[in-house]
Amino acid sequence: MSDSANKQEGWADYFSNNPNLKDWLQEKWQTHQPVYDLLNQLLPPNGKMLEVGCGLAATSIKMSLGGISCMALDIDPKVLKLAEELNQGENSNVSFVQGDMFNLTEHYGRFDVVYSGGVLEHLDETEAIKLLSEQSKVAKLVLTVIPTKSEKQKAPILRFPYGIKELVSFGEKAGLKPYSVLLFKGIESSQCHRLTKHKDLDVFIQSLDLIPAQRIGVVFKSPMIKSITI
Ligand SMILES: C[S@@+](CC[C@H](N)C(=O)[O-])C[C@H]1O[C@@H](n2cnc3c(N)ncnc32)[C@H](O)[C@@H]1O
Question: For 3-221, which CATH class?
Answer without folding.
Answer: alpha beta
